[in-house]
Amino acid sequence: MIDFEANALIATYSAMAVYTFAFILFTVDLAGRSASEGQSAPTRWLRSAMAVTWLGWGVHLSATVMRGIAANRVPWANMFEFGLTATLALVGVFLGISLFRDVRFVGSFITGFAILALGIVATNFYVAVTPLPPALQDYWLVIHVFVAVLGTGFFATGAALSAAQLFQSSREAGKLNTRNWRFLSAFPHSDVLEALAYRLTVIGFVFWTFTVIAGAIWAEHAWGRYWGWDTKEVWSFIIWVLFAGYIHARATRGWRGNPAAVLSLIGFSAVIFNFTIVNVFFKGLHVYSGL
Amino acid sequence: MASPPRSKGYQPNDLHESRQEFDDANAPVKNRLNQPILGPTLGPFEFLRWAWRLLTSMRTAIVLLVLVAVASIPGSIVPQRLADPNGVAIIRDSNPDLYAFYESVQLFDVFTSVWFSAIYLLLFISLIGCILPRTRHHWNVLRAEPAEAPKQWTRLPIREVVPFSGSANTALDRAAVTLRSARYRVVRDGNSLKAEFGYLRETGNLVFHIALVGILVTLGFAGGFSWHGQRLLVEGQAFTNQLSSFDTFNPGRWFDETNLDPYAVSLTTFTPKYVSDPVKDVWMPIDFTADIVVTEGGATRTEILKVNDPVHIGDSKMYLLGNGFAPVITVRNPAGDVVFSQPVPFLSQDSNLTSVGVVKIPDGLAKQVGMQGFFYPSAVELDSGALASNNPEPTKPTVTFNIYTGNLGLDDGTNGNVFQLPIDKLTQIAGRHTGDEVVLEPGDVFALPNGLGSVEFASVSRFIGVEIRHDATQFGVGLSVAFLVAGLLASLGTRRRRVWVRVTPKGLEWGAQARGDDPGLETAVGRILSKFLLSGTRDKVTRT
Predict the structure, then answer these.
(1) Fewer CB within 10 Å of terminal CB in chain A, N or C?
(2) Do A228 and B83 contact (CB within 8 A), yes or no?
(3) Which chain A residues are within 8 Å of B321, Cβ to Cβ?
(4) Where do the DSSP E strands lie in B307-420?
(5) Do A252 and B277 touch (CB under 8 A)?
(6) DSSP H or E run through B401
(7) How far apart are CA A171 and CA A190, in angstroms?
(8) B293 three-state secondary structure
């Protein structure tokens, strides 16, 4: 009998190791490109970085699947599992987009974020597989959390691009012309970054809308009301409103561009806050997610 | 494709500008603030007009959205009366000054507070002020012909000349057919075509925003007809659906007691299942099942009530929200007559269901007696001598009491909190720290000091906490949300594109333009062109 639970944790750490290797390759590529002035073509390191990221994602996927088999349910019922699956979605979204558009330049951000997130959930939030309390035994767990995971993946990639856009536009305005920032020459123009960030964030917004709706339907089943301003509901609402603000800001003169990007980053901070601080320190009905 | 102008630093074209390029100039535009705002010499009418424009401007909408988000934050930090009444009570008891301050600025009711309501009402007024003119304009656009081609075709991002055989007339007809099959609206205008696609974008956008108003209106009106109440139900007990049967009841604004459907529910048995978590060494519940009997309209039926699985009764639903133990306590006077005998629900405090409860005996004994009880389903003695429970199942059910006499404070007609005893105003006569411990297992009887009477722990039952809820808003909100999602998807998934075709000496000249950035425009137009060329070959083939 294979011990899926233990293997899932081993695979999680292995995925982190592979991602770390990919992160180094991505960084070497950026360094190589900024070293040669005016020459911003991808180096040979980039292809290997992508290959290693795919490999890491495969290991990551196996970790997630094994965790699901060990628990005999979807692998997103507590904070460790949510973190595991959400980072899988994040890297998956990045790899998926890279099939259509060249977004490899954010590779070091994505792999770096994945390493950090996996490290935090595996060391701080790890819990052994436990049976689900009655309130979590519902098919809405599958839907509600899955769309939340996907939405988080898109928000994170969008936020990475928004951050890149902010740096890039500062550089374009001549504010960041030191050698340290030369790697940004490997990045597309801020307009391109902005358009791509918007597209991804809007997809994230659609998923988040579904998350809130699915959560409301589930809340109606479990607690008798679809909306009760539980702390988690409050923060899901705040996130939704902030990204709605971002979408409007993008269509408004004076807000479009950098101010809108800042709004998007604030929105993503709220996503992270909702997952970490709200889960750990706030009181509410979602607390039995049991870390 | 032309790249957007970058002369202004990073400030891509505003919707407003692109709109002027794309639509007719008198289209209503959310952001009118870039028009010069008049100076301070405004008359009352102009002032109102200025205020209205300010309120309905997109910038104001963004600021209000951010304000709604910020104003919600206290609602997650300060306990809310709606979501966490217990947390409010804790602050009231532990920090009266803070409580008074929070109360004065409505921080316990953030989402119904004056200041939160002011923000979202302004936001919705701004929203309505925006969608009304936009709806009117879109209605006109839907009925109008596609826009005229720009005077200078050189400004169009996509232009292509396609040679054709046969007459210009048939070629234009073929172009029109091709465009229509790509779901463009096409109008022939002499020797040219004007075509437009993507009306659904604005339609979806408007539907989305109107659906938001729909949610708010439903909550405002249908919410008044909603009601919900809670009730603890012990095994063997029945509950009739009337106001006096509820432990707590929250009526909507327009609730009327005659709204309550006549029915009765009794709890037959409640069965929890627990498994041991070997890692954390705790018991975890994996299933709660309540077997209930519903009597409604003269008919009786059995139902199973579970978490996540409410039971429909009449126009309301019953939810299983909590459970616990209700020890059956019997109190007798010195003559041996029963003055109190009933199951008393105890509230559980931990995962092994150590529970606390209160028994109040205001009448029947020489003095008023209040008992603060602790229930341990599986009692074990700790090293300190205190009891604890090591299993949520009743393997060794034990009740301990601290017993008091004095004024229970029930004489003013109010029931008080059934789970609280005003112990600081009472005199303890038995229990912990009195040298006269009261530790009872089923069947045990404790003789009260001074010949007051006796207390018996007869047996133990289980109880469930149910919520019964009639939510009149569900239908309206559900419908609005369905429209909201449909509108959102339609709006975000549709691109607005315009295509013009005119006859030139070299062939048919096609020009296309999109609203906003549209990297797919070139591909989409390319597909239409190849389809057009293909239809030409087919023509030739059929002709030969």
Answers:
(1) N
(2) yes
(3) 223-224
(4) 311-313, 316-332, 338-343, 347-348, 355-361, 369-376, 379-381, 387-389, 398-405
(5) no
(6) strand B398-405
(7) 9
(8) strand
pLDDT of residue B378: 93
- Contact across the interface for A257 and B11, Cβ inside 8 Å: yes
Task: Give the closest residue to B455 by CA, choosing from B439, B477, B469.
Answer: B439
Tokens linked to B17: 């500008």
Determine, yes or no, domain membership for A250.
Answer: yes
What pLDDT does B298 receive? 85
Residue B543 CA, chain-centre distance (Å), reads 64
A191–B66 CB contact, under 8 Å: no
Measured between CA atoms, how close is B186 to chain A, in angstroms?
28
Q: Looking at the 3D structure of chain A, how many domains does it have? A: 1
CB B351, CB B393: distance < 8 Å: no
CB atoms near residue B107 (< 10 Å)? 21
Q: What is the pTM of this model?
A: 0.84
Query: The domain containing residue A213 runs over which residues?
Result: 132-291
User: Tokens 């009743």 appear where?
Assistant: B394
Q: Inter-chain contact A131–B31, Cβ cutoff 8 Å?
A: no
CB pairs under 8 A between A and B: 161
- Give whole-number Cα distances, A190 to A161, A165, A186, A261, B106, in Å: 9, 5, 12, 11, 44
- Render pLDDT for B22-60 as a digit per residue (tens, 0 to 9): 444 444 555 444 555 555 567 888 888 888 888 888 889
DSSP assigned state of B349? -
At B44, list the tokens: 């009352």
Please name the amino acid found at residue B394.
P
- The per-residue pLDDT for A45 is 87
Query: Is the Cβ of B10 closer than 8 Å to some Cβ of chain A?
Result: yes
**Tokens representing A191?**
């307009």
pLDDT tens readout for residues A235-289: 999 999 999 999 999 888 888 889 999 999 999 999 999 888 787 777 766 654 4
Answer whether residue A95 is part of any domain: no
| Helices vs strands, H then E, count in chain B | 11, 24
Find the Cα–Cα–Cα–Cα dihedral A260, A261, A265, A270, rounded to 10°. Answer: 20
DSSP B112: G
Query: Token pair 């009261």 is at which residue?
Result: B438
Residue A248 lies in a domain: yes
* A87 occurs within a structural domain: no
